[in-house]
Amino acid sequence: NHAENPADLKRVEMKRRGSSEPLPYSIGSSGGTEIKPGAGKLFHSRSYIHMGENHPIPEELTLSFKIAPYSTNTAYESSTENEQVLDLNVSVDMETVRKYISTIPLNKMLQIESQRFYLKEAVLSPAGIVLKANIPSSNTMKVSGLWDVYLEAVVNGEKIRLNSDSAFLPGAGGGEMTYFFDSNIMEKPESITLKASGFQAVDPSKMKLVVDTDKKEIIYSPDGDLRFGEYTGHTLTFEYEEQADRHMGSVSIEPEFVDGEGKKHKINEDAGGLSSSSRSSSDTEVSLITQYIHLKPGDYPQPLTFTLSSYPGVMEQAFEVPIQ
């Protein structure tokens, strides 16, 4: 960033070279990424392209970086009026990808008490390692994935941790799930092992958040740890703490909610929809998470009931599954 003021990388769009339409399965930045001034400072970010089964990955891409001056007023919005666009053409070496890609059937059922998680297969490539799984609909708990999951690759006797920072999550009743891990297969690891510490699982009957915006209070949350923030300009915020000594996990909310008279409403996607921010303290090892819910202008009969699609909760049990 050579400017005098901080910049905000609002989003990264991926397109076929020569096309103006973003790829439908691309995932990039969604705003709120502050890039501080200084020519010598490096900014690191990662984006993904997840194509459908019958759609090949384009070998010639254009990455469009949408950049705007950083402002706390628009930090968690994915677009703003005064954006600048930086296009970068990229060629993908598909010949190397095809040479090293391999699919390994796993067919392994993981189980804790009566809750199950089925591992289908792993796809290894230089760009990343994909783990495909299925969460049975017969589970009585809402299982939303594996807890503390990573791959351990051994290269020349050294153990290397390959993390997952992206996933396609299952629906409300279970179903297909996909994890995307880092890859080092070009280093020809002697072994790759999937490791996890348990399931992310919660009681589905508790997956709701009831808020009275008039009284500015949370009437119900799964464990009472959510705190009312504020309600101004039709933006509702609430807060919770992630502590190092407790199980962490995301709080996600469905885009539809119900008012006090039972009428359904959609959140205001045009104003930012759902977003969150995090502030951490190295002294206390606590992260304060603030969730933002943007509502459409109007007077809503109280209270408002939101459905939680995910919430921190863990069933602990260590798993190790050989991949290679």
Observed structural traits:
25 strands, 324 residues, mainly beta, 5-stranded antiparallel β-sheet, globular
Care to describe what's here?
- With 324 residues, the protein is mainly beta.
- The chain has one helix at residues 94-100, and strands spanning 7-16, 26-27, 33-35, 48-49, 60-69, 84-91, 102-112, 115-125, 128-135, 142-147, 150-155, 158-162, 164-168, 175-181, 191-202, 208-212, 217-220, 227-232, 235-243, 252-258, 264-266, 274-281, 286-294, 304-310, 314-322.
- The strands form six sheets. The protein has a five-stranded antiparallel beta sheet. Strands 10, 11, 12, 15 and 25 form a five-stranded antiparallel beta sheet that branches.
- The longest helix has 7 residues, at 94-100.
- It is globular and about 60 Å long.
- The chain starts with 6 loop residues before the first strand and ends with a strand.
